Amino acid sequence: LLRRDLNDEVEFIVLHIVESMDAVRAVVGDDYETARLISGAEKLLSRYDGACAHLNIADMPSEN
């Protein structure tokens, strides 16, 4: 969960790291670009982006 304070709002970005897009589809189906909120969360938000962005990890620190 990322947070950024703006002038009159607070922005949150939720990151999920998954094994594959097939894993995402297995949970949410083919409409995987539509954002899904926890029930009731919309009442706490002034607005939210209804779309999801899916990105590939380009680099990750190695575990030592």
Number of helices, counting only DSSP H or I runs of 4 residues or more: 1
Provide mean pLDDT, rounded: 92
Which stretches are poorly predicted, pLDDT < 50 over at least 5 residues? none
Strand order of the largest sheet: 1-2
Estimated helix fraction:
10-25%
Radius of gyration: 15 Å
Distance between the termini: 25 Å
Sketch the major β-sheet.
2 strands, antiparallel
Percent of sequence in beta strands = 5-15%
Number of beta strands: 2
Helix/strand order, N-terminal first: EEH
Instruction: Briefly note the structural class of the backbone.
Output: alpha+beta
Shape: flat
Which tags fit this structure?
two-stranded antiparallel ribbon; alpha+beta; 1 helix; 64 residues; 2 strands
Describe, in plain words, how this protein is organized in 3D.
With 64 residues, the protein is an alpha+beta fold. Helix content is 12%, strand content 12%. The chain has one helix at 21-28; strands at 2-5, 10-13. It has a two-stranded antiparallel ribbon. Strand 1 and strand 2 form a beta hairpin. It is flat and about 40 Å long. The model has no long low-confidence stretch (mean pLDDT 92).
